[in-house]
Amino acid sequence: MYLDKYLDYLSFEKKYSINTLESYKNDVEGFLTFLKKNGTPINNDLNYSFIRQWIVELSEKRISPITINRKTSSLKSYFNFLVRTGSISKSPLKGHRNLKTKGKIVEPFTQKEIEKIFQNFTNDGINDRDMLIIEVLYSTGIRREELINIKVKDINFENQLIKVKGKRNKERLVPILPTLKNSIQKYLSKNSSKYLFSSKNGARISKSTVYRIINRYFRKVSTKAKLSPHVLRHTFATHLLNNGADINSIKEILGHSSLSSTQIYTKIKMPKIISDYKKSHPQRNLITSTFFWMFQHYTSHYLLFFLIFHNYML
């Protein structure tokens, strides 16, 4: 029901990318197939009970809560469109709450692991293209989709900037280091194509190719469970934060629309935050002085004091 019009709305008004459109299309079509199988049309009689049945069916197929939440989000957008266009009077998803998920923090690569990758390039002769892909991802923090869409004309060598097209086709300028600029120029002196990274026929490389490259090389230097281009994006942000970069600057480089998206990365540096807090808070000296006063006045209970002080410092 009006799926084509909905997809046109997402494409021309919301400016969603082709991949995002395909995702929304598949999610909505999946639900429409479910309704057709059960002989249920989309009209004002469609209520939340049908949504629940669909969610239960997805759960029984062992589809993860994260994926189910994404599908219901697509569906909510679809029904809101139908309400706005007058096709139905109310959305059956109004008031729906997402399934609970286990929030997992992506563990970034360490500085040593990154250094080992570059050492391997020198010692083992890693393919020039593969090495540059790793260097671009780590040096800029761009997404995999943004990487494969970079055209040579998007690179401003004079000002050391790359123009990338992010989510919803939003363009932004990403700074590059002089070392990365030199690496790109050296690579382009041997490879000429429309795209920075292209296949043998001149087309852009695929997302799966980029994933395989990252997985292949990083599994040689890391034991982390997840080895992907997205982990390099987290690594970029985390390493900048740990070296004192302003979180608002990182937000702009990453292309986040809100600071809350960038703040996910601050969780990684929590041990450092706790250490700095304990070292820097003025009350710490006050409390420590109080303990020493107790020690001077109650020397006969020095063992008890030591245990209390020890536990406190832990």
Which regions are unreliable across 5 or more consecutive residues at pLDDT < 50? 287-295, 298-314
The count of DSSP E runs of length 2 or more, i.e. the number of strands, is: 3
The CATH superfamily of the largest domain bears the name Intergrase catalytic core
Mean pLDDT: 84
What Rg, in angstroms, do the CA atoms define?
26 Å
Total number of helical segments?
15
Q: Architecture of the largest domain, according to CATH?
A: Orthogonal Bundle
Terminus-to-terminus distance: 62 Å
Instruction: Tell me what portion of residues adopts beta-strand conformation.
Output: under 5%
Give the total of domains. 3
Overall outline = elongated
* CATH topology category name of the largest domain: hpI Integrase, Chain A
Order of helices and strands: HHHHHHHEEEHHHHHHHH
Q: How is the main sheet built?
A: 3 strands, antiparallel
Report what the structure shows.
There is one protein chain. The protein is mainly α. It has three domains: 3-84; 111-271, hpI Integrase, Chain A (Orthogonal Bundle), CATH 1.10.443.10; 281-313. It is built from 15 helices and three strands. The protein has helices at residues 3-13, 18-37, 48-60, 65-84, 111-124, 128-140, 144-148, 178-188, 207-218, 229-242, 247-254, 259-262, 270-280, 282-297, 302-313; strands spanning 155-156, 161-165, 171-175. The chain has a three-stranded antiparallel beta sheet. Helix 1 (3-13) packs antiparallel against helix 2, helix 2 (18-37) packs across helix 4 (65-84) and helix 6 crosses helix 10. It is elongated, with a radius of gyration of 26 Å. The termini are far apart.
